[in-house]
Amino acid sequence: IEKGERKRGARAAESAGGGGGERGAMPVARPEPQEPRVIAHLDLDCFYVQVEQRRNPALRGQPTAVVQYNDWKGGGLIAVSYEARKFGVKRSMRGDEAKNVCPGINLVQVPVSRDKADLNVYRNAGSEVVAILSTKGKCERASIDEVYLDLTDAAKEMLLESPPESSEFTFEEATKSNILDLPSDVGDREENVKAWLCRADANYQDKLLACGAVLVAQLRVKVLEETQFTCSAGIAHNKMLAKLVSGMHKPAQQTVVPSSSVQDFLASLPVKKMKQLGGKLGSSLQDDLGVKTVGDLLGFTEEKLQEYYGVNTGTWLWKTARGFSGEEVEDRLLPKSHGCGKTFPGPKALKNHSSVKSWLDKLCEELSERIQSDLSCNKRVAQTLTLHARASKENECNSMKKFPSKSCPLRYGTGKIQEDAMKLFESGLHDFWGSRSARWSITSLSVTASKIFDIPSGTNSILKYIKGPSSNASTAILDSSSTPELTPFVVHEEQCEPSSIKEECDNSISATQCRLIEGKGAPKKLSKVQGTGSILKFLSQSQPAQHEKRNFDGLICSHQGPGEFFRSKRG
Ligand code: DCP
Ligand code: CA
Ligand code: CA
Q: Which parts of the sequence belong to the UmuC domain (predicted)?
């Protein structure tokens, strides 16, 4: 048996981890801090829709969706308001389908520049929120509309100075929290929540968590007052749990995970709902070990899991099953990388060098603008240029071969980036097709600038940082899975995950963003709702409030990691 299991284990690990540097490496456990932490994950509700509703207040409270491109069946929906969701409108629909199920829907076009979606307005709106949230604790911008906060210090301070149990008045929005331990459908719910928040006999962890819930409620009201955006949040002792529950009750609600509820919560959570288990590792758990829920993992010893998936991932799985996660909130308000991409579905696929060149030129132009802006605003330099593409192999539909991602040292200057990107493409095409002169077709292209570092302060010439090596792509092409030879100025090596194709630009910064992040100028407030104790109150004044309890399907579709963010979007 032992021998047989080893074999099976090896196969499981291989099929789960294989794929050569494809998205997401196998997860690894981080050492856990001794002291309890308070971590929040915040995610804006139907984000692009809210941005459009702020630009055009007539859309508030109306069924609304943001669509990308309009030339085929009314364009693809990329964000859907909660009013429209009640009619069954979904992100996977085209505009025409949405109109069928919800004739009154307002469809707003995503802004376009250089023949592709221009997401700057959304990025800047996300930065407004980051600027507010980062005032309370270590803040990590996780995607265009998501943030992690480490509120441990703020919660400890509150516990010492003004714990919920000692104050006469408990912040109203906090009493609307969903606490996993408490039943959510009883009449005196808010009284129960209040009692939970103020429990004098709670243990230290739960007391900190209660303070965290109050702090997050305050922050959410502040975000609403200053930006007009609602968001949902999860509050727990680690990032993993906070993220898992932040979308459980949407919109405009928060969910708290006391330690005592972790086991029951994970017992029924399907493995595939965990970010790191969405792919091959999760499939292997299901198919090879018969593990359906995270709780099912409790049936395996740490050694057994290590035997199957290696020491690191085995330990990670063992800890995950118990709700342990040592992963820290990174101190990062700015994006880890800048990516620009576009998809060319179906008949739009690119079939010759000149069309690839023309699109790569546009993508590189935008990328260059964004890294220049990052340089001047934030004194940050990107070191690596990566090209990702997807190819469809005509007549070889079932071929698993992927267009290889290619990287080289990044040289500043639009012309240089364009030149290098084209060389990276040709190198990838050569590896993909060999010397065969068969016809090829490209269904998506993206360029990414990564390995971004801060120029040390006091540096008087930034030129030496941005010239980079004299070599260009033709002499320095690397597969993105290998570590590029970088400029000699590596200050800190960020773990760059060359995310798979991002179909539009994700993280970026702009001048507005710089001001916001540096606190040099607050965004123009369109209307301020002073002293709102409760978000629901605000919502009910301005629009009919919908409070939807989401099932786990909703949870997973609203919680993709940054790397997967734009995956399903159509160009
Ligand atoms: N987005 C996109 N294409 C996707 C997914 C998302 O363009 N396939 C954009 C539009 C979304 C924004 O990113 O508004 C944030 O994505 P979320 O997954 O967080 O979804 P929403 O914020 O729209 O809705 P929810 O309230 O469920 O979080
Ligand atoms: Ca969101
Ligand atoms: Ca999100």
A: 39-278
